[in-house]
Amino acid sequence: MFASNHFFKRRDLINYGLLAILLVVILPLSMDIFRLNLVGKYLSYAFVAMGLVLCWGYGGILSLGQGVFFGLGGYAMAMFLKLEASSPEATAIQSTPGIPDFMDWNQLTALPWFWEPFHSLTFTILAVLFVAPLFAYLIGVAMFKRRVGGVYFAIITQAVAAILTILIIGQQGFTGGVNGITDLRTLMGWDIRTDEAKYILYFVCVAVLFACLLLCHFVLKSKLGRLLVAIRDREDRVRFSGYDVSNFKIFVFCFAAMLSAIGGAMFTLQVGFMSPTLVGIVPSIEMVIFCALGGRLSIIGAVYGALIVNAAKTTMSEAFPELWLFAMGALFIGVVLAFPNGLAGLVESLRERFLTSRKAAAAAPAKQPEPEPDDADELDTNTRAVSQS
Amino acid sequence: MFADYTSSELLAIFAMQGFAGLSLFSIFVLMALGLAIIFGQMGVINMAHGEFMILGAYMTYITSHIFADYLPSLYGSYFIFAMVFAFIAAGALGALVEWALIRRLYHRPLDTLLATWGLSLILQQCYRSIFGAREVGVTLPDWLMGSVPMSDMVDIPINGLFVMALTLTIAAAVYYLMYRSNWGGQVRAVVQNRPMAGAVGINTEKVDRMTFALGCGIAGVAGSAFTMIGSTGPTSGQLYIVDTFLVVVFGGASSLLGTIASAFTISQAQSTMEFFLSGSMAKVLTLLVVVGILMLRPQGLFALKIRR
């Protein structure tokens, strides 16, 4: 454990490097802008999956309401862009110029008060970053201080996702209803719909993704990450050691919420709309499978998980739409039953097998093969995760 | 919001909405009873519960067609047979699912949740492939049509009354089974202390399978009753699953009485508010209140004290 106190191990550097080469060099060179834009969209889900790795894989808290935070971030960004697209000149044909078109269709004559601050980009960015964690904090305080966790927490977060979806759809005049906020055009006068803008936004998204990956890496390598694993595995012992367990849980839940919200904002910028179909129960639980497929203990795995599941979804729904739900259902069951640690766990165990067989061949036959000290702690974490959660 | 109505109108509104609430209550109770057995007694999260219910609804649909085509003279009583078929089909599928999936995951409740969600997606697509994406409905036999006039403003539909009577019967049967029969004693023994129950000779694996199958079977009957009130589509089950889980959790997961009490509270609150507010706002308010109360009192209304 102490031998591996360097911030990056060699293997981490290789993993990050491979991901960077894939996202920055290989994909942009091999795809046209339409496909690359889709990859950008998948990457915005990767933020949510990363948050779930921290929250679920390390903290043991399964939230089925990450779509709520994704939506809060996405809607904040969409409200800003929509206000910019609804200048009085652009909306002169409406009965009330200067307000978003769906408000005009719903007989609203003035901008609601909570839309006003979204004229400012600074406020919007702050809202993207802090509204979702604040909301998560409220839920977290109410739940974790009372030691509610596990299954109950999952059900309640799911209910929150249901409530927010019904609210957004019901309050059509304020939120755009079931269609969501569409027809977004410019960001500070810069047209986000052109191919050039889409390239730039893709690279911005990749840069933000790597910043968040490093932040997660930092959290997990710190003492906090160790404590989270300890809480997941033996909550009582951590509590008896004098730690306030609930505060750590609240922190990691809020952190995951912030990551989701950033993902939501990146989604809105790249895809050009935001709707309640990305907030509800179904998308929220799909986001869990991105994380589960990639490996619930690997932040890089989460990125690959989001990319693979979404790419498969797009390909399959284009080719055989009726098979997609079967594949998705089989994926849920297969990941849970066959490889609970996901692709990262699979890669890890293959690597272990390779290393031990090579060592066993090299070392004297009597000597027991030992795993590298470098990996000892991670291996331990992985094996325990299967029996827990 | 009450100012626009006279007192007699208000009374009639409350009576009508109260009755509509009772219909919703019946559905909630029927769905939640199965879930309360599976979740409350076994601690298994079955996200595919709604799909078991829909299986019962489709069985009813098939039965009604078989009776209409081959036994038109008995058409009036097809519903009784349909309920039996629905119970058997859903129960058998439940036993199969327990054997293939659930028993491997008893120690990982959160993973059960994900696996059963996957199962629900597969079942939904099966229904869509077999029965089509469109919603189907059944023709009610004549004796269930019509309504009973209570006063000049209030009419009570007969099918609603029938569903309610059915709910009461099933609830009573479940109560008898769980608290008065030998088998129920075994189930409760396994819930309270699994190793000790095994030590006194109870086959805990068999009890688990039967309990899960029973819960699914009741969901099938619920689906059968559901066809009398609404039409059935491949995704109808998903609409109710969150509500049902909230009902069970709100009532205190391991208490059947609590489940019924909370189903009553939630359905009445929702249908009364639906008249004065829009449907979506009524739902939002109800869910918010339930979630709020659960945050203050996580163990639910009726908590059973058991040693963990």
Main sheet: strand order of chain A: 1-2
Order of helices and strands of chain A: HHHHHHHEEHHHHHHHHH
Please state the average pLDDT score of chain B.
83
Question: Roughly how much helix do the residues of chain B carry, as a percent range?
Answer: over 70%
Radius of gyration of chain B: 20 Å
User: What is the quaternary state of this protein?
Assistant: heterodimer
- CA radius of gyration of chain A is 22 Å
Helix amount of chain A: over 70%
Order of helices and strands of chain B: HHHHEEHHHHHHH
Describe the main β-sheet of chain A briefly. 2 strands, antiparallel
By DSSP (H or I, 4+ residues per run), the number of helices of chain A equals 16
Q: What is the overall shape of chain A? A: globular
Protein name (chain B): Amino acid/amide ABC transporter membrane protein 1, HAAT family
Keywords (chain B): Amino-acid transport, Cell membrane, Membrane, Transmembrane, Transmembrane helix, Transport
Family (chain B): Belongs to the binding-protein-dependent transport system permease family. LivHM subfamily.
Subcellular location (chain B): Cell inner membrane
